[in-house]
């Protein structure tokens, strides 16, 4: 009986498959979505196989299923015609998380400068860190037939944040996941191009910051100043940007022979969060003589927490180094030492990648950082 039931289910499934095939043929224009459904794969996978966008990353079995489904449905790609239509558009979309954040403001400035040189216009959409808006905006820009889209912001690691907000400093996991990948695949299938600023894990051409080496350079500079008791104020654990900066700091400390277990306090990317984290860190580890802070917004709060809440002198008792070199960093008291990110150049590079011919494999352009030492750092106490 079990064998007959299995056989009946198989026959039914094959009949449904043939029905869908006949229906698609009768309907004329077969869509990529129909091919994906018949093959039992995602739209992103079907696009990679049939439109050459990362096809080498698809296994032979899945590739065969997609190609069989395409032949069965007599699918003909209209991507060349759609690409021609998009190439005549003078509009490039830029999706950011917060237009008021200096991090994204600098990226937008770089992209707009490069676009002007190419007689293009940049249309900016801000998610304000509302879940799902990144996908919604990508869909809207696709409907408006923009030429290409830049996605700016950090990817996620899948680690729990422990209730810490991910807002701020250019990092937020809004819109990540399968839905975003599907929407990107649909846009690319129509001839569009997408580039990411920040590592998103989406198989896209990417402009990335050298976050690991930037953090490592800051640690080495503090070590050379005699600091041996270092602490870190970090952002949410689930953000790739945070993970890479923290990893770079830890690797550098191990290479320098530091004792294991460098204390880390986490907060959201805000001045209030940084201030509270600094108080927790120094109360738990009162011997700390230097703090690496993984964003300038948090570092502004760390300076306030150390000086106003704990009564500690910066840099005489505790040195502080931030990350990003936001415009206000030089005006803090004391002026903040920080790891400078080439954010305007990131916007320029992203636009350049969009206008270049697509490569066989996703490309990553990593931009170097620069350590800028100001008044918030000095020799370790007693040195």
Characterise the protein shown here:
By secondary structure, this protein is α/β, with parallel strands linked by helices. It contains 13 helices and 12 strands. The strands form 2 sheets. It has a 6-stranded parallel β-sheet with strand order 2-1-3-4-5-11, with helices on both faces. Helix 2 crosses helix 4, helix 3 packs parallel to helix 8 and helix 6 (102-117) packs across helix 13. It is elongated and about 80 Å long. Residues 2-28 and 160-176 have low confidence and may be disordered.
Low-confidence stretches: 2-28, 160-176
Can you tell me the overall shape? elongated
Radius of gyration: 25 Å
Overall pLDDT: 84
Q: Give the N-terminus to C-terminus distance in angstroms.
A: 85 Å
Number of strands: 12
Number of helical segments with 4 or more residues? 13
Question: Can you list the strand order of the major beta sheet?
Answer: 2-1-3-4-5-11
Order of helices and strands: HHHHHEHEHEHEEHEHEHEHEEHEE
Class by SSE composition:
alpha/beta
The main pleated sheet reads as: 6 strands, parallel
Question: What fraction, in percent, of the residue positions are helical?
Answer: 40-55%
Strand content: 5-15%
Offer a concise description of the structure.
The protein has 383 residues and is of the alpha/beta class. It is built from 13 helices and 12 strands. A 6-stranded parallel sheet has the order 2-1-3-4-5-11, with helices on both faces.
């Amino acid at each position: 009986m079990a064998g007959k039931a299995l056989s009946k289910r198989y026959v039914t499934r094959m009949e449904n498959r043939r029905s869908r095939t006949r229906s698609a043929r009768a309907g004329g224009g077969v869509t990529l979505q129909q091919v994906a459904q018949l093959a039992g794969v995602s739209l992103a996978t079907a696009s990679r196989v049939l439109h050459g966008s990362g096809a080498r990353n698809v296994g032979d079995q899945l590739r065969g299923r997609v190609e069989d489904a395409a032949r069965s449905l007599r699918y003909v790609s209209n991507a060349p015609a759609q690409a021609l239509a998009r190439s005549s558009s003078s509009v490039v979309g830029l999706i950011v998380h917060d237009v008021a954040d200096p991090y994204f403001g600098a990226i937008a400035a770089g992209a707009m400068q490069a676009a002007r040189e190419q007689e293009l216009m940049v249309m900016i959409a801000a998610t304000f860190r509302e879940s799902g808006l990144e996908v919604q905006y990508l869909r809207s820009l696709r409907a408006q037939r923009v030429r290409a889209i830049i996605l700016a912001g950090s990817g996620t690691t899948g680690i729990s944040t422990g209730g810490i907000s991910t807002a701020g400093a250019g990092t937020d996991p809004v819109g990540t996941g399968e839905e975003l990948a599907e929407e990107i695949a649909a846009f690319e299938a129509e001839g569009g191009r997408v580039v990411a600023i920040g590592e998103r894990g989406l198989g896209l051409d990417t402009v990335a910051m050298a976050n690991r080496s930037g953090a490592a350079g800051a640690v080495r500079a503090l070590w050379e100043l005699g600091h041996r008791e270092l602490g870190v104020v970090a952002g949410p654990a689930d953000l790739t940007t945070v993970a890479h900066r923290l990893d770079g700091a830890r690797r550098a400390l191990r290479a320098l022979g530091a004792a294991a277990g460098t204390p880390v306090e986490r907060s959201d990317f805000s001045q209030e969060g940084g201030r509270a984290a600094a108080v927790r860190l120094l109360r738990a580890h009162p011997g700390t003589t230097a703090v690496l802070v993984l964003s300038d917004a948090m570092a502004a709060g760390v300076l306030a927490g150390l000086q106003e809440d704990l009564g500690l002198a910066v840099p005489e008792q505790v040195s502080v180094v931030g990350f990003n070199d936001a415009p206000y960093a030089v005006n803090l008291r004391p002026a903040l030492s920080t790891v400078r990110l080439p954010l305007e150049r990131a916007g320029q590079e992203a636009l350049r990648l969009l206008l270049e011919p697509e490569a066989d494999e996703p490309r990553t352009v990593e931009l170097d950082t620069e350590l800028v030492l100001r008044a918030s750092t000095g020799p370790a106490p007693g040195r």
